Amino acid sequence: MGCGLQVFRKYLAMGRLYWKIATAFLLVLVLFGGVTLYISIDTAKKYAEEVNQQLNYELAEHTTHTVAPFINNGVIDKEGLGDIMHSMMVINPSVEVYALDKQGNILSYVAPDKVVKLEKVSLEPFENFFDNPKKQVIKGDDPRNPGEQKIFSVSPMYEEGELSGYIYIVLASQEYVSTASVVLDSYILRLSTLSILLMFIIAASVGLVAMYFITKKLKKINSGMQEFKAGDLTKRIEVNSNDELDQVAMTFNEMAETIQQNIEEIKGVEKLRKELIGNVSHDLRTPIASIQGYAETLEMKAENITIDERRKYLNIIVKSCERLKSLVNDLFELSKLESSQVKLNMEPFSISEMVQDVVNKYRIMAQKKGITLHTIISKNTPLVTADVSMIDRVLQNLIDNAIRFCDEGDSIHIEIDTENPGNVMVSVIDTGKGMTKAELENIFDRYYRGRNEENATQGNGLGLAIVKKIIDIHNGSISVSSQLNQGTRFTFGLQVV
């Protein structure tokens, strides 16, 4: 029940993220639609003004020729001029016609309801109008609405070659602007609203679907992280593409892999610690007890013990210390191997030279025991790839084990065979006491000693276990064959370079 509630809360949180993004997206769309609608209407109005002014650009010039006879020597025939201008407004009710003197003062006009509030019109826009080859939109004063600007047409009037005034025509009268604005706004509003609404629906649909898939991918990433957090260290997020969110998933997978490896290493260290504690408490008890026993004997019989006995006891103590040291070193080495704490340093080397070096180290020891050491090495032995120090330890342990199970007159042969393609086979063969079939099954177990090992104190039962583990981490194999009272053969392979 608690797990289901946790999952529900998780998806509810992701749902809130989706609706937050969706709400912000829709608000942006509404704002964009409003701005677009405003720009569309404003552009339509400006376009209408531009077309109107271009169509009537020369209207004032034509009007000048008509009204010129009614202006003589600066005197205006207002009645005749009014009739002419009134007739123009009947034909085109959208215009307002003004007769100006050369300073811009209004001399006469024809306007709806005769509502004119200005007595003078600024002449500055006239210069721009006359010098406007591209016929851009230019606005001038609206005599009926002080402070406002309207599109216009203007033409100078000359009398006897001198400038006497202007005909100034406002191309959109107040009534026309009010009526046209309603019609224009209504049409543009409907057209723009429908277009923007359609765009809004399409954009919203596509955007919401896209955000759904994006948040769905986020849900998958979040779900994987939650499962990993809950303890499933094997959880990885499936990656189907290479976009930004999938890169987040890949980064998480890499991080999870690193964390899992670190945890496994920590577990390995913990396992090593526990094994060391167990091994120390179990396997070091015998040599420690021996050292303690003989040391106490020396202390108790200090006045009565003979020199020979003293030497004997001290010799046993020294050997026990050496065995204790060897056992501790082997315990550390085997524990590290079994907990994967040892990193291989793979490199090419000559196994022939290594065998010769190791045999030379043990030759004196073998001679003292009356054992003969021989090497049988194939010609042109290729280089092999392995960890040099570890393979050296394998050879030492195998030869040391062979010497321990051989008697005077026995022999040990170390052979290198290159007949197996891709591998060099190394064998350590002795003519010693050999083993039974039952003993062979346990030969690589930790602390196992064969029943024929008379000098048990010479070994600690870890040498062959270390050999087996070293070969295992090299991804190789080691085999053993033996016959009782006839000898034993150990063989392992190394990969050729």
Determine the CATH topology of the largest domain. Answer: Heat Shock Protein 90
Summed over residues and divided by their number, the pLDDT gives a mean of: 79
Question: Under the CATH scheme, which class of the largest domain?
Answer: Alpha Beta
Structural class: alpha+beta
In CATH, the architecture of the largest domain is 2-Layer Sandwich
Describe the 3D structure.
There is one protein chain. The protein has helices spanning 2-55, 59-67, 78-91, 124-130, 174-229, 244-283, 285-300, 307-338, 351-368, 388-404, 437-441, 463-473, and strands at residues 71-72, 75-76, 96-101, 106-110, 139-141, 149-159, 162-170, 346-349, 372-377, 384-387, 411-417, 423-430, 478-483, 487-495. The protein has 497 residues and is an alpha+beta fold. The protein folds into four domains: 11-52 and 180-227; 57-170, 2-Layer Sandwich (Beta-Lactamase), CATH 3.30.450; 247-337, Helix Hairpins (Orthogonal Bundle); 345-495, Histidine kinase-like ATPase, C-terminal domain (Heat Shock Protein 90, 2-Layer Sandwich), CATH 3.30.565.10. The strands form four sheets. It has a five-stranded antiparallel beta sheet with strand order 4-3-7-6-5. Strands 9-11-12-14-13 form a five-stranded mixed beta sheet. Helix 6 packs antiparallel against helix 8. 22% of the residues are buried.
